[in-house]
Amino acid sequence: MSRHAIISGAGIAGPALAHELTRRGWRTTVLERAPERRDQGSNVDVRGAAREVARRMGIEEDIRAANTGEVGMRFVKDNGSAAAQFPMDSSSERDGPTAELEILRGELSRILIEHTRDSTEYRFNTQIAGLTDDGDHIWADLDDGTAIDADVVVIAEGMRSRTRDLVLPLEVSDLGMYIAYLTIARQDTDDQWWNWHHLPGSRAVHLRPDNLGTTRAMLSFVSDVRGLEDLARDDQVAILRRNFADAADARRILAALDQAPLYFDALGQVRAPHWSKGRVALLGDSAYCVSPVGGGGSSLALIGAYVLAGELARADDHRTALTSYEQFMRPHVASAQDVRPWVLRAANPRSRAGISALHATARLAASPPARAVTNSIGRRFGRVSADDLRLPDYSDVSTTTTPNPPRG
């Protein structure tokens, strides 16, 4: 009889894990409390070893086909001209701010679900209400009154996972910054750059292209006030209107606030002391959210799903598999989470003088000689990250036939 995994979360990590487990003969059930797949959010990237994971999963070409078309990142001045720019360079050994594989979060989730929906049971509008581990199996009581059993339960939810708190409650480390993500109508003046406009008061307006004919906008600000992410949408909208009333390039965003899809959150990190308890494991942001400041969260989610699936399929018992997964991933996660508070402040200056200084530094860093030196130093002394990660070889682990292609 095939082993069964219950996976809570249908974002990126959850469907990726289902993809790899079903390839190796497991039965998978993915639960998602949202009524349907979520399209919200901005760009994510697939970097370093995650690109190799995508190749092994057979989804790399789908990711390329759904690329946002972003050509690089640039800091812009008040008049809209570029203060410094960092074009995407596919010939470089390391991706810059814009990766070669740049995709919307919702598009990556769509691809993963399309590649697994014939082999995985998806149950939307459903969440876990309780878990009972009897030693031989684990039972999940669902909020619809039913219960299902499995060999393992994997919580692949977001940074503020509710299901995680049933088993491994912890506090999210707040970084003191809020970001509002919106999808707005594209204008003729919108280009293919990620345009980042700094404003005094540690605020910023971001505009980024997508592949769906719209523009992805972000409004970010640093604040010592905590808990704004828990406010009602109307209150969050009022805060955004007040904070960005003086920003000319934010006017079209503010005008769209009442109708545009909005996701408002506080940046934070998850540093769980343990990633498993009994037959329950954490994966992706619920285990090790690095935040957009640390970067690479989606890449680590893909890598983590690949490693967890490989270890579960290889090991004779879940304890060995979950221990091996955590031992392999922890050093790379710790490196990605090594974000100093001063870096966040330096990237979001409070004064116009600070913004000018940041732009001057960025112009120097963007020059060809400086980029060559940076790449050289990175190759010699770069810290361990998803870029440098050598993936385990699971070719000795039996697999089923070629993964199901997406249904057209």
CATH architecture annotation of the domain at 4-68 and 103-172 and 269-336: 3-Layer(bba) Sandwich
Give me the CATH fold name of the domain at 4-68 and 103-172 and 269-336. FAD/NAD(P)-binding domain
Strands of the largest sheet, in order across it? 5-4-13-14-15-12-16
- Tally of helical runs: 14
Helicity, in percent? 25-40%
* CATH superfamily annotation of the domain at 4-68 and 103-172 and 269-336: FAD/NAD(P)-binding domain
Q: What's the CATH first level of the domain at 4-68 and 103-172 and 269-336?
A: Alpha Beta
Return residue spans where pLDDT drops below 50 for at least 5 consecutive residues. Answer: 373-385, 401-408
Mean pLDDT, rounded to whole units? 89
Percent of sequence in beta strands:
15-25%
Oligomer, anyone? single chain
Total E-strand runs: 18
Q: Over all CA atoms, what is the radius of gyration? A: 21 Å
The termini sit apart by 31 Å
| Structural class determined from secondary elements | alpha/beta
- Largest β sheet strand count, sense and barrel closure: 7 strands, mixed
Shape: globular
